[in-house]
Amino acid sequence: MSETASTKIFFQITRFLVWYTILVIIWGAWVRISHSGDGCGTHWPLCQGVLLPKSVEPKVLIEFSHRVMSGVYGVVILLLFLWGRTLFPSGHMARKLLLATLVFTVLEALIGAKLVLLELVGDNDSLWRAGVMGIHLLNTFLLLASTVALSRSRELMSLPKGNSFGIRRVPKQLLSAGSILLVVALAGAWASLSNTLFPSHSLLSGLEQDLAADQPVLFQLRIVHPLLAVIGSVALVALTYNLQHARSFLRMLSLQVFFGFFTLLHLSPVWMKLSHLFLADLVWVTFVEMVIRSCSENVEQAKQSGGFASAHPDCI
To answer: Quick one: 131 and 214 in the same domain?
Structure first.
């Protein structure tokens, strides 16, 4: 399929969208870390009951700016969705990914609204908040994955008719690796929330508190993340080291593990928390790109050999 000037511009915008998605994610984490989630009160989508809050209190500005960024994001996604329908024919991969991105964006807004309306922000340390946060994180990662896939959907244009790229075309080992990444990220979100609500003054005292039976469950959950990160990283290397396009992913994973170790040793200062999350997003981005490259290349090899199923045993 030949590209028009409009199509090229479209894909350039989607590449920028990936980075803007990460920026919104990082700023959302800053909202939580700075205890600014209740900056707009229990109002949504308005802030303190008005469209433009008059307060210049830092927590109000932080939360309101995040809502503005998210609002702009939603408008961009909607415009891209409508534009994509004029650029690509029915059934085209870009159309499917645009729909997925739009759905995840709407879900992201609804989950964020629930956090505010149910007051699961600020200093709330309930398990209900942890549960909703977990759903929020999983949806965020799926949203980021859909934007990355959308930006790389040109690589999927070569798919044979009737063989759409999807969950059935992803190698089993990559599905397992993706599941591990999501579980480790979920544990990381809980650990970050626990560190924000219950900061430790030393590594030893923090470990003693984590293991104490009389501490809140959120307190005890934060020790799970570093343990899962170590075990999960070993499993991820075992699952992906022999893949042709795994080099960038494994490099980013190694950097993330080492940085996470130093973040733990330094008791998770704010700048390291945000950097750790940024690296986690990059690990996920490189993983999604690895999946796309692996399966699109397998499909291309299948076309050249004259048969889809026989030519790419990795993609199920």
So the answer is: no
Determine the structural domain holding residue 284 and report its residue range. 162-316
Structural domain ending residue among the three candidates 104, 126, 157:
157
State the pTM of this model: 0.88
Q: Are 140 and 108 in contact (CB under 8 A)?
A: yes
Mean pLDDT by runs of 10 across the 316 residues of the chain is 79 96 96 92 91 91 96 97 93 91 97 92 87 93 96 67 50 90 94 83 66 68 89 96 90 96 88 95 96 71 49 43
